[in-house]
User: Fold this.
Amino acid sequence: GENVEQHPSTLSVQEGDSAVIKCTYSDSASNYFPWYKQELGKRPQLIIDIRSNVGEKKDQRIAVTLNKTAKHFSLHITETQPEDSAVYFCAASGAGSRLTFGEGTQLTVNP
Amino acid sequence: NAGVTQTPKFQVLKTGQSMTLQCAQDMNHEYMSWYRQDPGMGLRLIHYSVGAGITDQGEVPNGYNVSRSTTEDFPLRLLSAAPSQTSVYFCASSAGQEWDTQYFGPGTRLTVL
Assistant:
């Protein structure tokens, strides 16, 4: 089955800096790669996603890049703000809508 | 639109007890799933369903049963609770295509003593 690895497990940045979280996946049949943000005690919420026919997608300060050949994808957050502090999860999905999640990255943005 | 709802929010069980975690969605979603979340281990898929009457096992199905008699409801049953099942449980649903957004419920925090 699919295996998703996520790095780093913790990331601390200064407000205004950029943050990058990287994930690799194992199943070349996976075609959909969402990113979720989870604040403490809350449910995971989708922040951005990308399909395999696209190499990059941006939404304001957030972008995701995908390299299907290398089987890795990354989340980029620019101009970080304290409210960006949360746990971020990457995931990969193939046929059947099964999502396999990475283990999460605790992002801390220091004012 | 309530989205995905889960009950209860918190539950404490003794080892060996059984219980059912409830999950419902009002978005007419075909795909529903259950995850457990443990510290440092992300979200792991327990069981999922691609439509009423159809269920399948995920990554960590042992000790759990599910059924899907209606499109709206997808209960998760713990047959004989064990301390290893202490976790936060999330239900999720999506329209069913692999690129459709999965929406999560608020979660149930379960402690097994």
User: Anything to note?
Assistant: DSSP finds no helices and eleven strands in chain A. The interface with chain B takes residues 1, 6, 9, 31-32, 34, 42-46, 49, 51, 89, 93-104 of chain A (CB under 8 Å). The CA atoms of residues 92 and 98 of chain A lie 8 Å apart. The first strand of chain A starts at residue 4 and ends at 7.
